[in-house]
Design a protein that fits this description.
transmembrane, mainly alpha
Length: about 280
């Protein structure tokens, strides 16, 4: 069996899963709901894309998680992995095949959701949606989703049990999204930085704090959506407040945010494979 065969077989099984169909359908419904609810609030669909991006960075990982956490751990607990690896197939092609199939589902969810949003915007908004802005938004969102898929499949590959994989994946979500973004007022990345700085008798500069905040794939995703609003950031205060800052900062550069998202997915998958390669499957 090759990487392609593993991915094809896994994708066929995923296509028959109610979980997969539910994830794609519910995410598309949520995106459509955002557009429907704002059709009489903003004349421009790109302003609604801004709100969709915040929903995506916070909620979408929770849709990617059930698509990914059982990718390898589920097969290991059931014993299926011993049969698959008993065929002419390497552990690397197995893990990459699992990632490819789950990433395909993630991409499908993004494409379907944005197509639904585009149709709703075309039918209900005062100004017609810009296809280029929607395509750019879909591309950045797809990269974010694939990055999370790589990270979560890596967690799955590093664990033997379904329960541990689930805890690992949702722990990673908690760390990289609510904790890192600062949703928790008492314990977050900012308070950790302050505690470390106090220990060493120093302070954390705003530039350092901003750079560390940008190292989360979720924050990088939000920054990476800036090209979607090229030329129109002054039309709405929320856009100007988010993307109207100093553009020379490294965390404001598109290449840096794309690299950050890609790095989380690639390194997470690599770490998971390294653990899986050394583990006993019996």
């Amino acid at each position: 069996m090759s990487l392609r065969t593993v991915a094809r077989d896994d994708l066929k099984n995923a296509a028959r899963s109610y979980v997969v169909l539910g994830v794609v359908g519910v995410f598309a419904a949520l995106v459509a709901l955002v557009f429907v609810s704002e059709r009489n609030i903003y004349p421009d669909p790109y302003r609604t894309l801004f709100d969709v991006s915040f929903m995506t960075f916070l909620v979408f990982p929770l849709f990617v998680a059930p698509l990914s956490y059982l990718a390898v751990a589920g097969d290991r607990e059931s014993g299926v992995v011993k049969y698959v690896l008993g065929l002419p197939n390497s552990r690397l092609s197995y893990v990459l095949g699992k990632f490819a199939s789950r990433a395909s589902v993630t991409l499908g969810a993004v494409v379907v959701a944005l197509l639904v949003g585009f149709v709703v915007a075309l039918a209900t908004f005062e100004n017609a949606p810009n296809l280029g802005r929607f395509a750019t938004f879909a591309g950045v969102s797809a990269l974010y989703g694939v990055s999370l898929t790589g990270l979560f499949v890596g967690v799955s590959a590093a664990t033997r049990r379904r329960s541990r994989a689930m805890l690992g994946v949702f722990g990673a979500y908690f760390l990289l999204v609510p904790f890192w973004f600062g949703f928790l007022p008492i314990v977050n990345i900012g308070t950790v930085l302050d505690a470390v700085a106090t220990t060493f008798g120093t302070t954390v500069t705003e530039s350092t704090r901003s750079f560390v905040n940008a190292l989360s794939p979720a924050t990088a995703y939000l920054y990476a959506t800036e090209p979607v609003y090229s030329g129109v950031t002054d039309q709405y205060p929320q856009l100007a407040g988010t993307f109207g800052g100093e553009s020379s900062r490294i965390e404001a550069q598109l290449w840096f945010n794309v690299l950050t998202m890609a790095a989380w997915g690639a390194l997470g998958l690599l770490a998971g494979y390294a653990s899986f390669r050394r583990s006993e499957l019996g």
